[in-house]
Write a structure and sequence with these properties.
By secondary structure, the protein is α+β, with helices and mostly antiparallel strands. Helix content is 48%, strand content 13%. The chain contains 17 helices and nine strands. Strands 3-4-5-6-7 form a five-stranded antiparallel β-sheet, with helices on both faces. Strands 2-1-8-9 form a four-stranded mixed β-sheet, with helices on one face.
């Protein structure tokens, strides 16, 4: 079977009030692909549909299908969590090195940075000790444990590191801090809500039964939400985090340090919905990924829908949409700010910034288009 294109374009329209500032053109054809397949066929299909985040999608599919068949909660094994941690660290580094430079610094990735990333990719980037050593040398300038220790013990240390460190993440955060980026309105976190009894099951039922929920998801109380490293780390640390765009970007760097240090940050589990249906939640680089499935009596797929982090973060009435509405300036300046804002919330598809006159400015965030 030829894998379909599940890509599309996110169109950003600065200066327009929600819901008119974001148009999500993703082609979400997963239900058409999976319906009718034997349940056992589905997990192996996921990496063909989602080339970069295929591991997280495969895990979500396996957990959801197991919970649907057995009608009992299923938690990821220790081995599955370790693999998810390694994949998430790799994705954070890929996007930081390849996706951040153009929108944040206004230039393509620097040759020396690309050479360093190739050095990691050419070896076994999933080997924990090797990845931690590479992060220490190229991302942090010290062992991840030492970086985290100073972050915890010294107020203001992160700002000083950003201001002075020569490593790629610090340079890019310095460049982002120079931009007059708006505050993003505070939003509830998907990560926090999923800890409440019945919340995941409620989202899964809506995902299976309500047309359109997968492209405009909301929390059980109807609110828009955000997801990603920043709310995940707030949950882990128990302390509030700044709402600035730069702080959200910095949370990605902190998560790199925590993952490289071996912290078990990422949750992955599935819950039954009754009637041979279930929903899985997997925390990945961009945030929470949901897979909901319903099986028929012959253990074939009767329904399958996914909500990726992009649909939460770029909801037309969400926090990014409200921040986009406040952008002002000339066309080039607005496009730069919109690109930096979008990068902080990390859409998984190409995006373009609509100009008030002339053609839209397209920013292809990923060369690989089959991406969650």
């Amino acid at each position: 079977m030829t894998a379909p294109r599940l890509d599309g374009t996110l169109r950003l329209r600065p200066g327009r009030e929600p819901p008119h500032g974001i148009v999500n053109g993703r082609a979400l054809a997963l239900a058409r692909v999976c319906v009718g397949l034997d349940a056992a066929q589905v997990p192996a299909l996921m990496p063909r549909l989602y080339a970069l985040c295929g591991g997280a999608h495969e895990l979500a599919a396996r957990l959801a299908l197991e919970a649907a068949a057995g009608q009992a909660r299923v938690d990821a094994s220790a081995a599955q969590r370790r693999q998810l941690q390694a994949q998430t660290l790799r994705e954070h580094l890929r996007r930081l090195w390849l996706d951040w430079p153009q929108p944040l610094a206004g230039q393509p990735p620097r040759p020396q940075a690309l050479a360093a990333l190739r050095e990691l990719w050419q070896g076994d980037s999933g080997h924990a000790a090797r990845a931690a050593a590479w992060v220490a040398a190229h991302a942090l300038g010290m062992a991840p444990e030492a970086w985290l220790g100073r972050l915890q013990a010294e107020p203001g240390w992160l700002d000083a590191w950003i201001a002075d460190a020569p490593q790629e993440p610090a340079w890019l955060l310095r460049e982002a801090a120079r931009l007059p980026l708006p505050e993003v309105p505070a939003m509830p976190a998907v990560e926090d809500v999923l800890g409440l009894p019945g919340a995941l099951a409620g989202l899964g039922a809506r995902l299976l039964d309500e047309p359109g929920f997968m492209v405009r998801p909301v929390l059980p109380d109807g609110r828009c939400a955000q997801t990603g490293a920043a709310p995940r780390l707030q949950r882990a640390s128990g302390r509030p985090r700044p709402a600035s765009v730069v702080a959200r970007l910095a949370a990605g760097v902190e998560e790199v340090a925590r993952l490289a240090a071996g912290e078990d940050l990422l949750r992955a589990w599935a819950e039954p919905l009754g009637g041979q249906a279930a929903v899985a939640a997997v925390e990945m680089a961009r945030g929470v990924l949901l897979h909901a499935v319903r099986l028929d009596a012959a253990q074939r797929v009767a329904g399958y829908h996914v909500v990726a982090p992009t649909e939460w973060n770029f909801h037309p009435e969400g926090g990014v949409a409200r921040a986009l509405a406040r952008l002002r300036g000339d066309e080039a300046g607005i496009a730069r700010l919109a690109g930096a804002l979008a990068t902080a919330f990390d859409p998984c598809v190409a995006f373009e910034v609509a100009a008030r006159t002339g053609p839209a400015r397209r920013d292809t965030i990923h060369d690989e288009i089959h991406h969650a």
